[in-house]
């Protein structure tokens, strides 16, 4: 990535030489050009940024944090993978990796922010919640600049900035990217964040029927039960007593909670790369099984070796995503499947729900040597693969 602040070799995480998707885009470049252009040069920008407390919200793979590393910005991200990418990209750039400055969306924000740079997330709810959390740290002199692709910035996006922080306008588009300029108004009272949301599940979804679900902002299908999960719940296996179960890509934890209710004595590990999702899963599980029920909650890279020991799991339940930000990709699903095979004991099972057209049965047969259709409808299939 060539910027006024230097050229940087950036990768996504986990690093894959076959990966064709870049770790930055035109929106990141536009923001960095603007920071340098407003000061007429990168050197001038360095002078203007010197000594100012900079926060970068939603930096997807660390492009902004790495380019501005000399100014020691605080990064705030919901993504475990994005945080790992940032650490790798900082190290590759020869910058100090200070994990204390790499915060998650669940951490306490900095007390004061002089420059707030916002990479607009796909989830408007996550943006709303994070602007609420950061508003007390912003003051009248704070420079607030958002960035995103034209397809990511809508009237509703601008209204959020305006309602929570202050008057907002946008730039002209450049290479299909746009900037957002917000002038903080200390007299503005946006009220509390409306998140998390809670709702009761419908009465026809097995062990979790009528149970409470907790959704923090940014969690997949935060307003309702998604139809893929509903279909999996209708065909969910009951774990044996003492079984170790993984809700992989747990989201709000409904599937793992249902497994725990269906198999008393089972121990459930909830894993997601989203910190918001893991927080949702923990609150959903505790709301329904109490504070002492055995469970673990982990923001992690699927079932990587540092997450779960090989051959230590009896059952993996998975509703894999097929998007990475705006890109459609099966890389995440493949990583989840391979991690599940490694983690499962002989005889252990992976149960997957997915859109019929994605053809997961082909991947599972190639990986496990077997795959059985448990149930199907015109849109979804539930598949079962056994580790031999």
Count all strands and give the number: 20
Count of helical regions: 11
Helical proportion, percent range: 25-40%
Strand content: 25-35%
Largest sheet: 7 strands, mixed
The coarse silhouette is globular
What gap, in angstroms, lies between the N and C termini? Answer: 45 Å
Cross-sheet strand order for the largest sheet: 5-4-3-6-7-9-8
Low-confidence stretches: none
Overview of this protein structure:
This protein is α/β, with parallel strands linked by helices. It has 11 helices and 20 strands. Helix 5 (124-134) packs parallel to helix 6 (155-164) and helix 10 runs parallel beside helix 11. The termini are far apart.
What's the layout of helices and strands?
Blueprint: E1 2-3, E2 6-7, H1 26-38, H2 42-49, E3 54-57, H3 63-67, E4 74-77, H4 80-92, E5 102-104, E6 113-119, H5 124-134, E7 138-149, H6 155-164, E8 168-170, E9 177-182, E10 197-200, E11 212-215, H7 227-233, E12 244-248, H8 254-262, E13 267-272, H9 275-289, E14 295-299, E15 313-318, E16 323-324, E17 327-328, H10 331-343, E18 344-355, H11 360-368, E19 372-376, E20 380-386
Parallel strand pairs: 3-4, 3-6, 4-5, 6-7, 12-13, 12-15, 13-14, 15-18
Antiparallel strand pairs: 1-2, 7-9, 8-9, 10-11, 16-17, 18-20, 19-20
Helix pairs in contact: 1-2, 5-6, 8-9, 10-11
